[in-house]
Design brief:
By secondary structure, this protein is mainly alpha-helical. It has one domain. Helix content is 80%, strand content 0%. The protein is built from twelve helices and no strands. Helix 3 runs antiparallel to helix 7. The longest helix has 31 residues.
């Protein structure tokens, strides 16, 4: 009974976290209207997030300090570097070359990558139920965004490659999270990893950019603050908490809800059209996630 309750809480946390994370894509598209570069937008997102992560890190302690080795801190540096720095950077760059619909389809191969990476490096078994759930949700994602695909976009191959790298690096981060969270605890691990990511972005700006970041319209900074808190800080802790309860593989499958929430947010916020085909695809995705969560509760 207690385990079932923990699973239910994990599912709720994962769904809320995924929906909040997906709001980032809408905010990015809104910010790009002001001719801001992807590097500066990412800098705002993580710089505004950094003080919160620093405060939380100072106020919390590791879950099992006796189990932590020096090498574990090196792994945090690694996962922080690739998880929210490289994954976010590749995603922001890719969105400059391809439509959000194609980006969603490519990006959400990461549940499959999570299963493969977990199988190869952690010897985690891949169940038939997980494969079926991934198949269902991915079919739904493709149907949802099929009408938005425009394969004659300039530099589409570069955009596709960048988004694939984003999916791969994020999948590696999720697997690493499932491994390190039991040692550090949800809050500490997430804070440390995100602090590393934030400093990576700031260092990149200082070394390779140093462009003026004070002359953008006020709307850009407001979007940066909203992106930092609602689409970065809050969901980062929610997803980590969900991983600690459900495992990286199941959380990754629930992550397929992201494309659905993206089109719904775009419909309400950006006034984009919502077609019958998208509604059908969204329904299929939700069914696949329901299949996953139902099996997780009964297992």
């Amino acid at each position: 009974m207690q385990k079932s309750k923990q699973v239910s809480i994990g599912i709720i946390l994962a769904i809320i976290g995924v929906v909040l994370f997906s709001a980032k894509a809408v905010m990015v598209k809104m910010a790009y209207k002001y001719q801001i570069s992807s590097e500066h937008l990412l800098l705002f997102r993580m710089s505004f997030s950094l003080p919160i992560y620093l405060v939380i890190a100072m106020l919390t302690r590791t879950a099992n300090p006796e189990k932590i080795k020096k090498s574990d801190y090196i792994w945090i540096l690694f996962f922080g570097f690739i998880g929210y720095y490289l994954a976010s950077y590749f995603d922001f760059l890719g969105l400059q070359y391809i439509k959000a619909g194609l980006e969603r389809i490519i990006l959400f191969i990461y549940p499959t990558l999570v299963l493969v990476i977990s199988r190869v490096f952690l010897k985690t078994k891949i169940s038939k139920k997980q494969l079926v759930a991934i198949g269902i949700t991915y079919v739904g994602v493709i149907i949802t965004f099929w009408q938005e695909l425009q394969l004659d976009t300039p530099n589409i191959h570069l955009g596709v490659f960048l988004i694939f790298l984003s999916a791969l690096t994020y999948a590696i981060y999720l697997v690493g999270s499932g491994w390190l969270i039991p040692k550090f605890g949800v809050v500490v691990f997430t804070s440390y990893a995100m602090i590393v990511s934030s400093f990576c972005i700031i260092i990149q700006y200082l070394l390779f950019d140093r462009g003026d970041v004070t002359s953008y319209p006020g709307e850009v900074y407001v979007l940066g603050i909203f992106m930092a808190f609602f689409a970065t800080v809050v969901p980062s802790y929610l997803i980590s908490a969900a991983i600690s309860r459900l495992g990286a593989s199941n959380v990754a499958i629930i992550g397929s809800l992201g494309p659905v929430s993206t089109i719904l947010l775009a419909f309400f916020i950006l006034d984009e059209n919502l077609s019958i085909l998208q509604i059908l695809g969204a329904t299929i995705v939700i069914f696949g996630i329901y299949f996953t969560t139902k099996k997780a509760k009964s297992s």
